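In response to reviewer comment 3 from the previous cycle, which asked for concrete evidence that the modeling workflow produces usable outputs, we include below a single protein chain processed end to end. The sequence was submitted unchanged, and the resulting structure tokens are shown without manual editing.
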Amino acid sequence: MARVLLAYSSVDGQTLKICQRLQQLFMSLGHKAELFAIGQAAGPNLDAFDRVVIGASIRYGKHRPEVYRFIEAHREALERKPSAFFSVNVVARKPGKNTADTNPYIRTFRRTTSWVPGVIAVFAGKIDYQRYGYFDRLVIRLIMWVTKGPTDPAACVEFTDWQAVERFAQQVGSGAE
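The workflow returned the following structure tokens.
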């Protein structure tokens, strides 16, 4: 049994939802799993965990700065233990951009940080126009129009491949890197 930290940065809640599912899956594998929202007061002591998973969403083409600050603050601990990273973005809904090797945000992440997680994944996110403020709704609809995604202002479309999330949990939970 391992203690797993699920540290996440979520703008609209889909990354948190994925982490909650991962928590359930890790617990079903006999592990203890704890959630931590990156950006909360003091971060957890990573030495208290056997494995660390970091999940981060994309908004307007970038992971939030606190994700990089968290990684840099804990890089030594992350490098001493099995660790994993996943990104949540709507671009991953498209074939050819739905793997860690082909997703542009994962490529940017790899260039931006010196941390090299043992497992890296990307999951498609969710569009929920009714939850967005006016400006976000307008900008996201424009991005979706350009990328041939859903633009109906009443639309709520979840693109997350939950079987891919389960495969990721199996890989990280088994310690296979």
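The CA atoms of residues 22 and 169 lie 6 Å apart. We consider this sufficient to address the reviewer's concern, and the full set will be provided in the supplementary archive.
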